[in-house]
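[Solved] Which block belongs to which protein?

Original post:
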Amino acid sequence: MKRLYISLMTILMSVVVSTKLFAQTNLPYYGDCLQIQLKVCSNDDNENTSGTKSDDPKSGNKPSFSPKKAPTIGQKGNVIYLYGQFGGLTLDLLSGGTQVYSALVPAGADEIVLPDDLSGIYELQLNDGSFVYSCEVEF
């Protein structure tokens, strides 16, 4: 009886663990592409940093929020998979701080095909006007 109980508990735990892992990766499967976790930085240029009160209702003490969840993208060759996670944004590729490629990405885009002549390591930045999502990519 004890063996049966241990076996059932083992099966139950493996089902729970695999379900949790699957639930965390709710992204569509695009074959063997590389999954990349993006870093998120605020792009808020309207912050009142002078310490003086302004007539702008957005100025002053801002409430604290929990951090924005960093999205995951995919890469396979020169194709970047966005999985339709973003509204309209700008994609930039930087090499040594210099912009080498830029493109406007329509809202809900699933993938972006980059030029074939890219080689090396670049910083990829996705800017939606409020946040900049970035990572390193290698072609």
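(Second protein starts here: sequence line, then its structure tokens.)
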Amino acid sequence: MIALVKGDQAEGCDPECDQPTDWMKFTSIDMKVLAKRPAWSANWHAEFDHSNFDLRIHIDGEMEKK
């Protein structure tokens, strides 16, 4: 479960918490991991909708078959 809390609801938060950051410019990110032993790979694709704070993550993975 992921919970997002607006800065004005967070207690003890620095005033800068309410300010936009460079991270707010991202709308999607892709990551890929490859490993040799044991052989496996994984792809992550995340999409962000900043207007309603939606986050969608799609994960594909594959392990070596024995």
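Accepted answer:
You had them paired correctly. Confirming on the second one: The beta strands are 28-35, 40-49, 54-63.
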